[in-house]
């Protein structure tokens, strides 16, 4: 039987990701299309607790599809991990008769949503929004594709100056636990090597690889370093390499927070729109405690339980092999 | 048993697409990595016939990963459809002892490759390279993702001026037989309506939709028109609409050939690299008369026969529905 | 003696141009900084007549610096050319006690402002905002620099596909009366030729030039056509050329309205900010009936009278010469 | 009397800058147009010493106009500061009968050129190519405009995430001795404050400014820090501020070498083309020991002596004032 949901709230939580606004727009307009009252919660779970919940109409989400960041803002919220915080949040929802909650974020966000849904029986749907692409149940998370484009555009610029000066660059990209961004951007930028959190690369092998580049007359070399790499950040690695290999002038760039921003790519706008559209439709058909995700070219549901307990991204074997073969 | 292939040639044929250079680089370097001699054929099949075939080494494909177009150039070639043309092409390959041929292009390209491979027993592999995303056996063709990004960046710019002037814009995008580009860019740009070659949309419905936008106080409206639309191009449709609906100042933009160019997106660079890498590896393991494609997150083979005879892209139901629901 | 101005309104009129929002922000915040009440007029002079005038504070112009278009919208307004329209406009300003009016636009905008200022004694300042760069008294008009960047990015993309196919492209850019955009983008994109409204170029000479390119083995050729060219638009010229020169496959692209949009360049953001800042400061010091402009690296005033009656942009001799010399 | 120059060499030296390739193209093609033999020197002065000097024709500089970096590469060269190094360089030029030398770079480059020209009577022309915009005699140096655009695009992205999280960002940009880049990008990005090498800003004032932003409900704040600032780099300043002002979550980004790269803006392509064109033309008319520069909209000569001894860029008063007024 379909639930009788009348009022739905949406929030973004955790790190912001490009495409979140496209997704918020889709959630709000799909709800309105079905005659529901829609609400936006500011600053993620903090706004639930602080009762910072605002009514939204179709015009509230005009002209946001193409903007980076999130108009609902986001925050990490310790208070929501406590019973007292959850209680306040529930009280606020109840007061406004909100019976559906859609959360956009990563696994921290889903953990909160799952506990909250279980405890209070609120209908809850999760949408994978994080640039890290590290959630089980969706081939891609919202924001990841844009982040890859942002990073390779930065590396293309750095390659210009690296080539002009015969330099070796160490470039640190995001991905504390997952090497997905590092591996993909290494392939996409033609990097000479990549250091990943999941994989031990000996400094010795790295130096051998760089020396091969010298022998084959490469005019510059670029090494992508995932921030979670075992040898420390890009600065530490650069220092260690420099001690033993000093053919090039060595430079370091930490790309930092610009990786999170920017107008979402077509891929992320479409993904955000599809996921937001599906999350509302599925909720109205009775789904709860589920994550919507993209698998192949189809939108599929995965229970939050499963999404949270399965290991997510596995480094693709062909991509790993390619980082060696294609940079000869 | 693995074939004893020593010399491999690669060509691009049909319309050019961003990511072709990334793919050429992957083909050449993967071959060299395995100790093969690699050749580039200029201007597609025309170069095979004219014996415009040049040896390539690892440095021949340096610094091309990020460039649009194709360094091997491309052309449509009627002569290769004739027996005489094919005969010349084979003679040239034989002379150079080239026993493997990798072609990057669309269905016209594959038709030629298949006939050629069958007739002369040359090992042939196909790589789907076309912005149209209309080939069976691969969720995405090379260049499509970049084209979508290029188009939505152009539409974002047009939206600026449309909003500032309360205008109605008709924007024509590529896709003579397939509405894939039009449908996806319509969702990604928040277009108010889209006209597709696969689907009859009555002008009456379109005008109703536009009037709704006026009622809900939209300050501008954008209609995406696929070049293959039944009502003719964007100019004809704009004229027909204007006769019956004249609320806004009406403008037309034909995006044209800029849709084909530009530095490939991360997605297309990775896709081109994976497909080129796989095409060589599979050929060396014995595959022939196959297309390499991406399905889900994996590289899969499809025989050229099947790829050419199956209907390819089907408009996604949720995307079609979304063009109505999300632009309220 | 300094005038006692308390309430200032700002409007944008004519074609929109990137950087107008940066300029509106500067006007509003500079006024507020000096303790004035600030107002925005919607849709240019039409909003003056329709009394669509809204109070603005510092937050009204938050997060607009980087956006294309104009948040105040713009329109062409015939009614303001009539005495009756002006009378209504003045009545509305008087009612709100607005004693200063700042207009951002081109020469049509300034003509209206000048008549209005003279007739009613309202303090009026003009800011040159148009992508055409055709106003006397400012080396650059707001939006022109961004438009050049937008156009060359489009041409770079077209060059990719032109090179890949050995094609001849005719690309039509904006500039009905002034060849400034065409000449500059021709130099900046390395076009083989350019057709300008100010200058007769014989088709014969154009064809000679294109043939030279064939002789020197150019793989593609690009001709920039200003929309105001004497031979008609790019389509007509392409047709005429094709009749007598058919070495390449010939294509035409009309860039159209995407030339007006997009996030303003650094140059236009700074220019818009400086001009808006200066317009308010100068008005408060007593200036009226003046245009603020950039000359060299300094902000200078020119009376609207002079700005409107002097011939503006003159094609630079060295740039004209360079279109011949540098494309050999 | 015009000198009888037959062979001209061009080199790039110091840090690379976008637009150098456009300039090299203009130098080479202008020389060829006048019937001269043209040469490119690799790696700046080092290539003069090492006799790494290659003949160039019109096709050598095809398709480089739009590329960042420099195809001639660049390096800092200590050896050229010694008499012995200069002697070798001259010997190599003499051997090839090169009687004109055009150098593209900053003041270090010009110092070398001037000494070399004086000592050996070689005809020498300088072109200002550095992103720092710190040379007397030209309103703009080559690469500066592109660098500003690159930086503000990065800051726009960071603003997305700063706004979403209510954060305070310190962003370090290039400019060890000159605050030109920092000041301009601060205005162009709407930064809340800027720290410049030329100007003492007390931490106390900075904190007052940031607190005002909190009071006026700014959702994020961005402080631009020039790398040459007296308080140390962005990290040090962030730490000092954090100790006394902890309203926002504080983050730091060092933009680093991506500021040097990227496809040149229209402005820099035109500037590079004009300067290269003028340098050759003026040399052929007899000029030597001069720098070509842009003043207003005209190309002017300044003797290298004067260019090297005059103080260059002075922070514009209106821009300084605007950083306070416009970010309220």
Automatic annotation (TrEMBL), chains A, B, C, D:
<keyword id="KW-0479">Metal-binding</keyword>
<dbReference type="GO" id="GO:0005524">
    <property type="term" value="F:ATP binding"/>
</dbReference>
<feature type="active site" description="Proton acceptor">
    <location>
        <position position="132"/>
    </location>
</feature>
<comment type="function">
    <text>Catalyzes the phosphorylation of D-fructose 6-phosphate to fructose 1,6-bisphosphate by ATP, the first committing step of glycolysis.</text>
</comment>
<comment type="similarity">
    <text>Belongs to the phosphofructokinase type A (PFKA) family. ATP-dependent PFK group I subfamily. Prokaryotic clade 'B1' sub-subfamily.</text>
</comment>
<feature type="binding site">
    <location>
        <begin position="76"/>
        <end position="77"/>
    </location>
    <ligand>
        <name>ATP</name>
    </ligand>
</feature>
<feature type="binding site" description="in other chain">
    <location>
        <begin position="218"/>
        <end position="220"/>
    </location>
    <ligand>
        <name>ADP</name>
    </ligand>
</feature>
<feature type="binding site">
    <location>
        <begin position="25"/>
        <end position="29"/>
    </location>
    <ligand>
        <name>ADP</name>
    </ligand>
</feature>
<dbReference type="GO" id="GO:0061621">
    <property type="term" value="P:canonical glycolysis"/>
</dbReference>
<dbReference type="GO" id="GO:0046872">
    <property type="term" value="F:metal ion binding"/>
</dbReference>
<feature type="binding site">
    <location>
        <position position="15"/>
    </location>
    <ligand>
        <name>ATP</name>
    </ligand>
</feature>
<feature type="binding site" description="in other chain">
    <location>
        <position position="227"/>
    </location>
    <ligand>
        <name>substrate</name>
    </ligand>
</feature>
<dbReference type="InterPro" id="IPR000023">
    <property type="entry name" value="Phosphofructokinase_dom"/>
</dbReference>
<dbReference type="GO" id="GO:0030388">
    <property type="term" value="P:fructose 1,6-bisphosphate metabolic process"/>
</dbReference>
<dbReference type="Pfam" id="PF00365">
    <property type="entry name" value="PFK"/>
</dbReference>
<keyword id="KW-0547">Nucleotide-binding</keyword>
<feature type="binding site">
    <location>
        <position position="107"/>
    </location>
    <ligand>
        <name>Mg(2+)</name>
    </ligand>
</feature>
<feature type="binding site" description="in other chain">
    <location>
        <begin position="257"/>
        <end position="260"/>
    </location>
    <ligand>
        <name>substrate</name>
    </ligand>
</feature>
<keyword id="KW-0324">Glycolysis</keyword>
<keyword id="KW-0808">Transferase</keyword>
<dbReference type="InterPro" id="IPR015912">
    <property type="entry name" value="Phosphofructokinase_CS"/>
</dbReference>
<dbReference type="GO" id="GO:0048029">
    <property type="term" value="F:monosaccharide binding"/>
</dbReference>
<comment type="pathway">
    <text>Carbohydrate degradation; glycolysis; D-glyceraldehyde 3-phosphate and glycerone phosphate from D-glucose: step 3/4.</text>
</comment>
<protein>
    <recommendedName>
        <fullName>ATP-dependent 6-phosphofructokinase</fullName>
        <ecNumber>2.7.1.11</ecNumber>
    </recommendedName>
</protein>
<dbReference type="GO" id="GO:0016208">
    <property type="term" value="F:AMP binding"/>
</dbReference>
<keyword id="KW-0963">Cytoplasm</keyword>
<dbReference type="GO" id="GO:0005945">
    <property type="term" value="C:6-phosphofructokinase complex"/>
</dbReference>
<dbReference type="InterPro" id="IPR012828">
    <property type="entry name" value="PFKA_ATP_prok"/>
</dbReference>
<feature type="binding site" description="in other chain">
    <location>
        <begin position="174"/>
        <end position="176"/>
    </location>
    <ligand>
        <name>substrate</name>
    </ligand>
</feature>
<dbReference type="GO" id="GO:0042802">
    <property type="term" value="F:identical protein binding"/>
</dbReference>
<feature type="domain" description="Phosphofructokinase">
    <location>
        <begin position="7"/>
        <end position="281"/>
    </location>
</feature>
<feature type="binding site" description="in other chain">
    <location>
        <position position="159"/>
    </location>
    <ligand>
        <name>ADP</name>
    </ligand>
</feature>
<dbReference type="InterPro" id="IPR012003">
    <property type="entry name" value="ATP_PFK_prok-type"/>
</dbReference>
<keyword id="KW-0021">Allosteric enzyme</keyword>
<dbReference type="GO" id="GO:0003872">
    <property type="term" value="F:6-phosphofructokinase activity"/>
</dbReference>
<feature type="binding site">
    <location>
        <begin position="106"/>
        <end position="109"/>
    </location>
    <ligand>
        <name>ATP</name>
    </ligand>
</feature>
<keyword id="KW-0460">Magnesium</keyword>
<keyword id="KW-0067">ATP-binding</keyword>
<keyword id="KW-0418">Kinase</keyword>
<feature type="binding site">
    <location>
        <position position="251"/>
    </location>
    <ligand>
        <name>substrate</name>
    </ligand>
</feature>
<dbReference type="InterPro" id="IPR022953">
    <property type="entry name" value="ATP_PFK"/>
</dbReference>
<dbReference type="GO" id="GO:0006002">
    <property type="term" value="P:fructose 6-phosphate metabolic process"/>
</dbReference>
């Amino acid at each position: 039987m379909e639930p009788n949901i009348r009022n739905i709230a949406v929030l973004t939580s955790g790190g912001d990701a490009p495409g979140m606004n496209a997704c918020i727009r889709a959630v709000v307009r799909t709800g309105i299309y079905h005659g529901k009252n829609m609400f936006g919660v500011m600053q993620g779970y903090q706004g639930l607790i602080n009762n910072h919940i605002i009514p939204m109409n179709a015009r509230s989400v005009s002209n946001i599809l193409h903007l980076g960041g999130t108009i609902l803002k986001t925050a990490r919220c310790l208070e929501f991990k406590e019973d007292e915080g959850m209680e306040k949040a529930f009280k606020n929802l109840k007061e406004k008769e909100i019976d559906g909650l859609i959360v956009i974020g990563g696994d921290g966000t889903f953990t909160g949503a799952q506990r909250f849904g279980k405890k209070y029986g609120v209908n809850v749907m999760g949408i994978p929004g994080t640039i890290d692409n590290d959630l089980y149940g969706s081939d891609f998370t919202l924001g990841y594709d844009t982040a890859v484009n942002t990073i390779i555009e930065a590396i293309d610029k750095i390659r210009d100056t690296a080539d002009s000066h015969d330099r070796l660059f160490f470039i640190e990209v995001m991905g504390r636990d997952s090497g997905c961004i590092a591996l993909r951007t290494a392939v996409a930028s033609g990097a000479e090597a990549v250091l990943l959190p999941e994989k031990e690369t000996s400094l010795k092998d790295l130096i051998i690889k760089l020396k091969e580049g010298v022998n084959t007359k490469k005019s510059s070399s670029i090494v992508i370093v995932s921030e979670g790499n075992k040898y420390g950040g890009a600065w530490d690695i650069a220092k260690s390499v420099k001690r033993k290999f000093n053919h090039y002038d060595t430079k370091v760039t930490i790309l930092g927070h610009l990786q999170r921003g920017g107008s979402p790519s077509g891929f992320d706008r479409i993904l955000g729109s599809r996921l937001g559209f599906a999350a509302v439709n599925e909720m109205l058909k009775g789904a709860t405690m589920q994550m919507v995700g993209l698998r192949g070219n189809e939108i599929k549901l995965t229970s939050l339980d499963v999404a949270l307990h399965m290991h997510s991204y596995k480094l693709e074997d062909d991509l790993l092999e390619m980082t060696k073969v294609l940079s000869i």
